[in-house]
Amino acid sequence: MADLKYYDVILKPVITEKSMNAMADKKYTFLVHPDATKSQVKEAVEKMFAGTKVASVNTMNYDGKTKRRGMTFGKTAKTKKAIVKLTAESADIEIFEGL
Predict the structure, then answer these.
(1) How far apart are CA 23 and CA 17, in angstroms?
(2) Contact residues for 82 (Cβ-Cβ < 8 A; gap 6+)
(3) What is the pLDDT of residue 49?
(4) Are 80 and 36 in contact (CB under 8 A)?
(5) Residue by residue, what is the 3-state secondary structure of the chain?
(6) Percent of the chain scored above 90 by pLDDT?
(7) Residue 24 vs residues 45, 86, 92: alpha-carbon distances, Å
(8) For 2-21, what is each residue's pLDDT tens digit?
(9) Is pTM beyond 0.90 here?
(10) With bands split at pLDDT 50, 70 and 90, how would you rate the model's confidence at 32?
C-alpha cells in the first residue's frame, strides 16, 4: 500500500442535491482515495481547510460498474465516498460556498 499524504486523500467534492441538503447539518461529501482510512480523511480535511474541526467521518466503498462495448466487457474504477461531519463551532468549508 502506498504512503498517502494528506493532499492525496481528497480527490474532489461531491455536488448532488442530497449532499447540498446535508450541508445544513455541516456534513460535506468528498470522493476520496480508495485506500484512505477515516483518520486520514479527518487529517486531510483539517489540514486543507483552515478552521475546520471534524466530529466524525463515514465512508462508503463502491465497486466499479460493469460496462460493455460490443462483445468486450470491462469495469469502471472503484471509488470511495466520505461524508465528513464538522463540529458546531467549526468554520464552514469555502469551496461549497455560493453553490
Answers:
(1) 10
(2) 29, 30, 31, 32, 36, 38, 41, 57, 58, 59, 60
(3) 92
(4) yes
(5) CCCCCHHHHEEEECCCHHHHHHHHHCEEEEEECCCCCHHHHHHHHHHHCCCCCEEEEEEEEECCCEEEECCEEEECCCEEEEEEEECCCCCCCHHHCCC
(6) 85
(7) 18, 11, 10
(8) 688 989 999 999 999 999 99
(9) no
(10) very high
The C-alpha cell of 44 is what? 486531510
C-alpha cell at 39: 483518520
* Distance between CA atoms of residues 96 and 49, nearest Å: 11
> Hey, what CATH topology would domain 10-87 get?
Alpha-Beta Plaits (3.30.70)
